[in-house]
Write a structure and sequence with these properties.
Layout: H1 2-24, E1 26-31, E2 36-38, E3 47-48, H2 52-60, E4 70-72, E5 81-88, E6 102-107, H3 115-125, E7 133-139, E8 142-147, H4 159-166, H5 188-209, E9 220-226, H6 228-236, H7 241-264, E10 269-276, H8 311-337, H9 346-358
Helix pairs in contact: 4-5, 5-6, 5-7, 6-7
Length: 359
């Protein structure tokens, strides 16, 4: 009997740990246009993290394998932008108090989101256009900013620069409606989260002030990875007052940023919040040969584009020009082969006339 109770206790503990883990990793859709539909959600239905880029790419028209979780009812419409915010939380923290249109539990089979594959798909499909793309990851007191637009080149690259931005009069800390509660910006853990929020606010402000750069005809892709909430949970504990204030602050700013994005893109935008227990960078396998050059900057080379809109016209012109020349040469060769080489022929007429003139 005692052994049976021990086994039941172990099973219950395992199930509770699994439930807490599943609770900490989920995908929430904060906003989506009316023509975007969501699959009927069941408690046991999960979405793999390795399929997240296909789920996001489906409504944007960037994937040939759309996922059933999120689909578009219209083939003529697509969102003007997609914004993904990944919030890394402590393993013992409670669920963020966020409202959402849809919620999908995650199977965290891959500890990162393949944002680079999504951006490569957008660049390959909209080669002639210049969509705004930004992948901002905060990790180890630094901001890893990956972008192709000059609009985001002025973003800070370190937490120290972002903390200095908090001292400016136009930072969110000086607003009457934004209170940090028990958080102290001078501390490492607290200041890291506040700096992440400030950088996100600056990105949204840049978008609102540069409306002319949004009309590119291609969907904009923005991705943010915030790790400050996990740092506060590790520093103070999951049930501390600082952690609760940090969760409220993050939820409040995510709601405000969603409203700002809806106004900027006139409601035609998708905003997703991904809560994850951990995040890692994808491993890239690099190969090198003995004759490989070091430090080659391919952007400075005069390389031709992989595809150009004039390729079909150039191919047709070259094809029919070659066919015309081949047929012309065949007719000329056939006529010369069957020409009668007598004295009345054109081959002998000109030389005989010249001989008569000379005589």
């Amino acid at each position: 009997m005692a052994d049976t109770m021990k086994v039941l206790l172990i099973v219950l503990l395992g199930l509770s740990c699994l439930a807490l883990t599943c609770l900490g990793q989920q995908l929430l859709v904060k906003h989506a246009p009316s023509y975007v539909t969501f699959h009927k959600q069941t408690p046991d239905a999960t979405v793999s993290s390795s399929d997240l880029h296909n789920i996001i790419a489906g409504p944007l028209g960037l994937s040939n394998r759309p996922h059933s979780a999120i689909q578009s009812k219209s083939v003529l419409k697509r969102p003007k932008a997609n914004v993904l915010v990944t919030v890394v939380t402590h393993k013992d923290q409670k669920e963020l108090p966020l409202d959402s249109m849809a919620k999908f539990p995650l199977d965290w089979d891959m500890p990162f989101v393949d944002v680079e594959a999504l951006m490569n798909s957008a660049q390959s499909k909209f080669l002639e256009k210049d969509p705004l793309m930004l992948d901002l990851v905060s990790n180890n007191q630094f901001f890893d900013v990956k972008t192709t637009s000059d609009l985001f080149q002025s973003l800070p690259g370190s937490f120290a620069a972002a903390k200095d931005r908090l001292l400016d009069p136009d930072s969110f800390l000086f607003g009457s409606a934004h209170k940090s509660g028990s958080l102290n910006a001078s501390l490492t853990s607290d200041g890291g989260l506040l700096a992440e929020i400030q950088v996100m606010r600056d990105v949204v402000d840049k978008l609102s002030k540069s409306a002319e750069k949004l009309a590119t005809g291609a969907p904009d892709l923005l991705s943010f990875t915030l790790t400050g909430l996990k740092g506060i949970g590790e520093a103070y504990g999951a049930d501390s007052a600082q952690t609760k204030d940090a969760q409220k602050l993050v939820a409040k700013h995510l709601d405000e940023i969603t409203d700002d994005l809806k106004n900027i893109y006139k409601g035609n935008v998708m905003v997703e919040i991904l809560t994850a227990p951990s995040i890692e960078q994808p491993y890239v396998r690099k190969t090198r040969s003995l004759k490989a050059a070091n430090g080659t900057d391919y952007s400075k080379l005069n390389l031709a584009l992989e595809w150009d809109q004039d390729f079909p016209a150039a191919f047709n012109i070259s094809l029919f020009l070659v066919l015309t020349l081949v047929i012309t040469v065949m007719f000329i060769a056939y006529g010369m082969w069957n020409m009668n080489p007598n004295l009345e022929s054109i081959l002998y007429r000109v030389p005989q006339d010249e001989n008569k003139k000379l005589n």
